[in-house]
Design goal:
This is Short chain dehydrogenase. The protein has 292 residues and is of the alpha/beta class. 43% of the residues lie in helices and 9% in strands.
Length: 292
């Protein structure tokens, strides 16, 4: 499955969940790519003309969660003891660093020239929220680091929006989000490693591959270095023992960004993504249709 291609995501979901699987108890949505911080990738787009990081980290997993009906059908048809159907978005504590401003708050995902971009504090709309499209620096306004943080904020906001909607219709399914910790083995920055150039970049690459930078990143993030197994355990914990509408960090309930309490912002981003997918011919509305 190619997460940068919505057609591929749709086909994979249909084949796996409609043709091969008869039940679905837990849906853990984990996708993460991080761009090269040394290269401006303002023109890098997915097949569906979406900025690549937002395409993979947010839009693809948002689309995949339309499998709510199968979760509900599973719970209603053959419930298992102590099983609470759960959708879990794998986010990051870095989502707390991003705060959309100005037009980003009003428009949700920014759509310009058919391309979905993120609006960062230092990005397309500038710090005061005013349009910067005519600026000579517009082509360089995209920042992959901010896009990653933005995509992880969208996970938290989306999980909140879905949780609220499911609760309103008294669904048997719940939804939450979580932070698995700093996991060097995940190869999250693989795209950056492939493109690093120059002397300084080679030094950074050396540090990354030899794990010498792990202690520094761990200190900055305030998290211990974790193994793939430990990260996976936290994801499963959030899905099987977590509560709907909550955020989990390292196997414990924690507080997410205060932006989750801004109802208009939460609903705005959810609607913006749904509308975009609808325009692309992928009817995301199916996620909130009762499965009888």
């Amino acid at each position: 499955m190619d997460l940068s291609d919505l057609t591929s995501v749709s086909k994979a979901c249909d084949e796996l969940l409609c043709e091969k699987e008869l039940r679905l108890d837990y849906l853990i949505l984990n996708a993460g790519v991080m761009g090269n911080p040394t290269v401006r990738e303002s023109e890098k787009k997915s097949i569906d003309q979406i900025e690549s990081i937002v395409a993979v980290n947010h839009v693809a997993v948002f689309f995949a969660h339309k499998r709510v009906p199968l979760l509900e059908a599973t719970a209603k048809g053959s419930p298992l003891p102590n099983i609470q159907p759960m959708i879990t978005f794998v986010s990051s504590d870095l989502h707390n660093i991003y705060s959309p401003t100005g037009a980003a708050r009003k428009a949700g995902l920014l759509l310009e020239d058919g391309v979905v971009r993120c609006c960062s504090q230092q990005g397309v709309h500038g710090v005061d929220g005013t349009a910067a499209r005519d600026s000579p620096d517009y082509a360089l306004s995209f920042d992959p680091a901010w896009s990653y943080k933005f995509s992880k904020l969208l996970h938290v906001l989306t999980s909140k929006a879905i949780s609220d909607k499911l609760s309103q219709r008294e669904s048997l399914v719940q939804c939450n989000s979580m932070e698995p910790g700093y996991i060097p083995e995940s190869d999250l920055s693989r795209s950056a490693k492939e493109k690093l150039e120059g002397f300084l970049s080679r030094v950074l690459l050396f540090l990354l591959y030899h794990g010498l930078s792990n202690w520094l990143v761990s200190y900055i993030l305030g998290q211990p270095v974790r193994t793939l197994e430990e990260g996976a355990h936290s994801e499963v914990f959030a899905a099987t023992h977590g509560r709907g509408g909550k955020y989990y960090r390292l196997d414990e309930e924690d507080l997410p960004s205060p932006l989750v309490d801004e109802k208009n912002l939460v609903e705005g981003f959810h609607s913006a993504t749904s509308d975009f997918l609808q325009e692309k011919g992928f009817g995301i509305q199916i996620i909130l249709v009762d499965a009888e």
